[in-house]
Amino acid sequence: MSKRGGSGSEPGRSFRVVWLAEVDSTNRYVLDAAHSGEREGLVVVADHQSAGRGRLGRTWEAASGSSLLLSVLLRPRRAVDELHLCTAAVALAMADAVRDVAGFTPALKWPNDLLAGGHKLAGVLAEADLGASGVVRSVVVGVGINVSEQAIPPELTSTATACNVVAGRSIDRRSLFDAFLLRLDEHLDTADPVLLADYRARLATIGARVRVERSAGPLEGVAVDIDELGALLLETETGDTVTISAGDVVHLRPV
Ligand code: BTN
After folding, report:
1. pLDDT of 100 above 80
2. How far, in Å, is the centroid of ligand 1 from the Cα of 149?
3. Distance (Å) from CA 27 to ligand 1 centroid
4. Is residue 111 domain-shared with residue 166, that is, in the same domain?
5. Chain-wide mean pLDDT for the chain?
6. Tens digits of per-residue pLDDT, 178-223?
7. DSSP one-letter string for the chain
8. Whose CA is nearest to atom 3 of ligand 1?
9. 144 lines ligand 1 (CB under 6 A)
10. Is 6 inside a domain boundary?
11. Residue 244 sits in which domain range?
12. Same domain assignment for residues 87 and 167
């Protein structure tokens, strides 16, 4: 695979896969490899993580062999405020892989969750290594997707789902992974405006009444769009439009 990267990646990207039985966190593993000078394209997959990381400092837990847990090392020629395009490419690639292998198409919830029937199917966590002047040295994008229902911790059964539940049959992790890499290669080579349009089109958050859990407190409104930087534009009851760069979104109902 050696196409010129539309999303700012080095030309000549090729994926090198390391599949581990167990690791603390695939994101941690790949970040360490990036610090040691590893090239773009390392992909680490684990059957089990003992200290999986979620967004906003949370943990990510799943029974061994029940999920596809992976991290990809990218070295995009991008400014830090363009990194949302890398996470969008990964989320879109996984959504496409699910469509290809499991036969249903997950929607996206801002910023990068995959949803099926309104329930969480997968989460995406990007962690960047920035140089002194804010230059992006590398970004590690991790995905955890519930392949079978054993992936779902008991406290999340009412809000999460798994590929086999939605598809009505068991889904092979290796097939899903192979499809993901093919789709990722395509999305990383997609021109930015097209990638952003694809992401926007699949974002179920747009048009929904939502509650945003922010460090500054919750805020409700209608999610009207995303901006060029991937931030969510929320129209509140007072008619103001608030730009949300980070936070957790709860879909209340479609408008
Ligand atoms: C979220 O909070 O929704 C994001 C979860 C991301 C979990 C994945 S599992 C593989 C990779 N390694 C980690 O430690 N986290 C990500």
Report:
1. yes
2. 17
3. 8
4. yes
5. 93
6. 999 999 999 999 999 999 999 999 999 999 999 999 888 899 999 9
7. -----TTSPPTT---EEEEEEEES-HHHHHHHHHHTTPPTTEEEEEEEESS-B-GGG-B----TTSEEEEEEEE--S--GGGTHHHHHHHHHHHHHHHHHHHS---EEETTTEEEETTEEEEEEEEEEEE-TTS-EEEEEEEEEEE-SGGGS-GGGTTTB--HHHHHTS---HHHHHHHHHHHHHHHHTS-HHHHHHHHHHHBTTTTEEEEEE-TT--EEEEEEEE-TTSPEEEE-TTS-EEEESS-EEEEEEE-
8. 123
9. yes
10. no
11. 209-251
12. yes
Ligand 1 atom index nearest CA of 53: 14
C-beta of 66 in contact with ligand 1 (< 6 A): no
Question: Looking at the domain assignment, is residue 4 inside a domain?
Answer: no
Indicate if 195 and 224 belong to the same structural domain: no
Q: Does the CB atom of residue 48 touch ligand 1 within 6 A? A: no
Q: Identify whether residues 191 and 223 lie together within a single domain.
A: no
Instruction: Tell me the CA–centroid distance for residue 56 and ligand 1, in Å.
Output: 11
Q: For ligand 1, what atom is nearest to the CA of residue 122?
A: 3
Closest ligand 1 atom number to CA of residue 55: 2
CATH number at residue 41: 3.30.930.10
> Are 59 and 175 part of one and the same domain?
yes
Structural domain contains residue 46: yes
In this prediction the pTM is 0.93
80 and 189 share one domain: yes
**63-67, 131-135, 206-210: least confidently modelled range:** 131-135
Atom of ligand 1 nearest to the CA of 70: 10
Q: Which CATH number do you get for residue 245?
A: 2.30.30.100
